[in-house]
Design goal:
The chain has 2 domains: about 15-175, Beta Polymerase, domain 2; about 180-365. The protein is about 50% helix and about 10% strand. The protein contains 18 helices and 10 strands. A 4-stranded mixed beta sheet has the order 7-2-1-8, sandwiched between helices. Helix 8 (about 180-200) runs antiparallel to helix 14, helix 9 packs antiparallel against helix 13 (about 270-290) and helix 10 runs parallel beside helix 13 (about 270-290). The longest helix has 22 residues, at about 210-235.
């Protein structure tokens, strides 16, 4: 989207939504529905929710928009509220159209004002919203299986963004999802370390027989697992692939890791990859030791048996984390092969985005004894 006399200056979607609510939608609701208890927010799907939107984002699923949440008892007012907003909203806000058309499954700002204003404002109960998005009852207990089968992107989207007004307690519900319980967190870190431990020697093994392409592929997976561990160390949910690197670059925990990881990916041979990976490994163990959640671990690489491959763990990191787990259910799960969470199991967009798969994944963890009476 090139800025021109016809295109307003870009503003982040979160700032746009904040102003849209405080200056336009909020006053209309207070005037026309003074007794209504509700929350107004921009959470859920969208690069704007995560704060990663740019001018390029403006071409679809972007613009002045809000989510309004009301109590179940007030859902009968939904059509009336939307009709009132439809008739009262200005055609534009800060130069951006407030009316949208839907085309091929995406929302487009109706710059041509082709008809009645169709605002992108949704109204539903927060209970229904979270149930649809995560397939959980937010008022009930969140089980170990729930935590392991809810994608991080969705947890980040629900706990990120902004709430502009809250008269129904949405912030308290979001707080329940703010981060993993301690022992789930330990299990996920153990699983991430296990993924590294399973492949840390394979990068060099592929390279030493001349398979530099295979070596580079293994190295890229190691880089991804190192980055995932940094999110876990920082106790922050990781976004999906599009914003994974951008969010990683905002982590304080990454320190000098980024340059080493870029060196791994840019290397043309396995020896160069190994050099950068070894530096990244030692930094990663240092970050782990700073958490003080296990006994201190040696911050130096090891030789893989008598082969010329430098590794960091050979099982010691994952096992040290397993020892720190206290919850009997998670302790039992950690005695099995460490498959981790849904994000560690697969990067499939369909698996991670469609909550219908959660019931099938539940059975996978129940096979390991989790959730069984």
């Amino acid at each position: 989207m090139q800025k021109s006399k016809n295109n307003p200056a870009f503003i982040s979607g979160l700032d746009l939504a904040k102003g849209y609510y405080s200056e336009i939608v909020g006053p209309l609701l207070r005037s026309n529905y003074p007794a209504l208890k509700y929350a107004a927010a921009l959470i859920g799907e969208g690069s704007d929710v995560l704060g990663f939107d740019t001018e390029i984002s403006c071409d679809h699923d972007w613009g002045p928009r809000l989510l309004l949440f009301v109590d179940h008892k007030d859902l009968h007012c939904k059509d009336s509220i939307l009709a009132n907003l439809k008739n009262s909203l200005p055609k534009t806000y800060m130069g951006f159209a407030t009316s949208f058309i839907k085309d091929n499954g995406v929302h487009l700002m109706d710059h041509g004002q082709s008809g009645d204003t169709v605002p992108r404002i949704t109204i539903q109960s927060i209970d229904d919203y979270i149930s649809d998005y995560l397939s959980i009852d937010i008022h009930g207990p969140i089980t170990t299986i729930d935590w392991l089968t809810m994608p991080e992107q969705k947890l980040l989207a629900l706990t990120g963004g902004k709430v502009f007004y809250d008269a129904i307690g949405i912030e308290a519900l979001r707080k329940k999802l703010s981060y993993y319980p301690n022992d789930v967190w330990l299990y996920l870190m153990a699983s991430a370390w296990s993924a590294i431990e399973q492949e840390e020697h394979l990068m060099g093994r592929a390279g030493i027989v001349g398979d530099e392409l295979g070596s580079a592929l293994i190295a890229s997976r190691l880089v991804q697992n190192i980055m995932r561990l940094c999110f876990l160390i920082a106790r922050q949910y990781a976004p999906y692939a599009k914003w994974f690197g951008s969010a990683f670059n905002q982590l304080k925990a990454k320190g000098s890791l980024a340059s080493h990881l870029q060196g791994v990916l840019a290397a043309s041979n396995w020896q160069e990859r190994q050099k950068h990976l070894s530096q990244a490994y030692t930094k990663l163990v240092s970050l782990h030791n700073q958490l003080q959640i296990t006994e201190p671990q040696v911050e130096s690489v090891l030789q893989f048996h008598e082969r010329p491959f430098e590794v960091i763990s050979m099982g010691r990191m994952s096992q040290s984390l397993i020892k720190a787990i206290k919850d009997p259910e998670i302790k039992a799960l950690s005695r099995l092969p460490l498959i981790g969470s849904i994000d560690q199991l697969s990067s499939s967009t369909d698996l991670l985005s469609k909550s219908l798969w959660r019931s099938a994944l539940t059975e996978l963890y129940k096979t390991g004894g989790v959730g069984n009476d």
